Amino acid sequence: MRFLRAPPAGTASGCGFSGNRASPAWVLPGGRVDPWLAGNRTTVPVTEATHSLSPAIASGQFSSAKESLRGWGNSAYSFRMVQTVPEPGALGDIFTEREAYLKAYRLMLLARLLDDKFASLYRAGKIHGGVFLGRGQEALSVAVGLALRKGDVFAPLIRDQAGRLAFGESVLDAVRTYLGSALGPMRGRDGNVHRGRPREGLLTMISHLGAMISVVNGVLLARRFKGVTDTVGAACIGDGATSTGAFHEALNQAAVEKLPLVLIVADNQYAYSTPNSRQFVCRSLADKAAGYGVTAHAVDGTDLAACLQVLGAASAHARTGHGPQLVVAQLLRLCGHGEHDDAGYVASKLKSSPLGRDCLKLAEEVLLGKEWADAAKIAAWRCEAVQQIDEAVATVQREPTPDPFAENWVACASTHLVELHDEPQPGPVDI
Ligand SMILES: Cc1ncc(C[n+]2csc(CCOP(=O)(O)OP(=O)(O)O)c2C)c(N)n1
Ligand SMILES: [Mg+2]
Q: Which pLDDT belongs to residue 417?
């Protein structure tokens, strides 16, 4: 017997989040009410929980999550996946509205084009250090950023340009860091992906491999001691990080302390060149939540609407005292680990599978299909984004680079960094 969470009424057949929202009760197979959602936080033994991946699957494009994922190089994909679905009327509803979708799409587009620019600058020898992109992971990333509010804490990873923009990072901050401008948030002195604005809740990444989860826990604990409520901390990790001790220790700590942590796993099937089959043998990484008494959410990371909805619900749960939430998204990175890597090891059957779909193109198809935007509008948005990026690059190319003899640099402990943050900060991107 497995101890999993069950889908609510109306989604028992695994048909995504568009099930019967009018249903007041969260019921288990057989009609029993889930006491966890009824207020009693007892884990419910469930022998069979069906997972739904996305409206695309639900709409019959792929006959089922099981079928669509079965046999793509890893037995983990012939899975029966734990699913916790958003409460009816949860924050998720807001995010499926047209305006929210448009905003998310435009942020994804901006992030993609910014990533493309960094790739091209890297090839031109204009960027020192590594360039790591989030191509294919923008839907998940933007949903994380949009699920957070001003005052929340965000620990993004190397593939989270979209989430950073959604949380309020400016294009200039990113460009300044990559081009080593002394006016950047790290004053041109730190690695490209290690930038942040801690005072604004945007943490500076230590490592990709789970190190940031306990940092977010620490910030959340500190806030609790100060009496700050109504806050959420989000930490992003990859599938590889779930194999580290840092992940397990931090998830357990968050569970025991019932911290408002949203831990997002971008399961892109590889940790650098190591495939999932060489990393873990559980059916789904979402299963790891059960061992710590943590609620798990699984989502198709290529589907923007699903990501917005699941992340909205997960952060709402965390914010309202339901403890840490683990979100596991299935996707594929559509680029190398970094720009130095041609990703030749990625199985072609994965690339041609639903996981290999480009979330940006899918979102574009939704926009066109729903007539929320036409091709001309999308082209205009693209032009605007390109112009914004080109202007930022042109500006930054005229800025000074750091002078190691003129300042005493000690990264985040530097008073300079704190002083710099006294400048007015860019708020969340207004698109
Ligand atoms: C503690 C630590 N070990 C190793 C590395 C080197 N490293 C950086 S990213 C990475 C793979 C990460 O894979 P995953 O967690 O799946 O994230 P993805 O790159 O797929 O987004 C490795 C081994 C590191 N940065 N830190
Ligand atoms: Mg990975």
A: 54
Tokens, residue 206:
């230590």
User: What is the helix (H) or strand (E) element at residue 154, kind and residue range?
Assistant: strand 153-155
The secondary structure element, H or E, covering residue 220 is: helix 211-225
Q: Decide: 268 in ligand 1 pocket, CB within 6 A.
A: yes
Q: Whose CA is nearest to atom 2 of ligand 1?
A: 209
Ligand 1 atom closest to the Cα of residue 237 is 15
Which of 209, 215, 328 is the best mutation target for the ligand 1 pocket, counting ligand atoms within 8 Å of the beta carbon and taking the most? Answer: 209
Q: Is the CB of 337 under 6 A from ligand 1?
A: yes
Whole-number pLDDT of residue 27: 29
- DSSP of 366-393, one letter per residue? HHHHTTSS-HHHHHHHHHHHHHHHHHHH
Helix (H, G, I), strand (E, B) or coil at 310: helix
pLDDT along the chain (431 residues), means of 10: 32 30 32 33 28 32 32 33 38 63 97 98 94 98 96 97 97 96 87 89 93 97 94 98 98 98 98 97 95 97 96 96 97 96 95 97 97 97 98 97 77 55 45 45
The CA-atom distances, in angstroms, between 361 and each of 87, 142, 317 are 29, 15, 30
Structure tokens at 231: 């806050």
Ligand 1 binding pocket includes 187 (Cβ within 6 Å): no
Residue 94: closest CA among 241, 402, 309 = 309
C-alpha dist (Å) from residue 138 to 97, 113, 253: 19, 11, 29
Identify which ligand lies nearest to the alpha carbon of 270: 2
pLDDT at residue 404, as a whole number: 78
Pick the residue whose CA is nearest to atom 9 on ligand 1: 208
- Cα(28)–Cα(11) distance, integer angstroms: 11
In angstroms, what is the span from residue 384 Cα to ligand 2's centroid?
32
Q: In angstroms, what CA-CA distances link 328 with 233, 239, 258?
A: 16, 9, 19
Cβ 135 under 6 angstroms from ligand 1: no
Nearest CA to ligand 1 atom 4: 209
All domains of the chain in start order, with CATH: 2-72 (no CATH), 97-396 (3.40.50.970)
CB of residue 21 inside a 6 A radius of ligand 1: no
Sheet containing strand 233-238, edge to edge, reads: 153-155, 233-238, 261-267, 325-330, 295-300
Neighbours of ion ligand 2 (CB under 5 A): 238-239, 268, 271
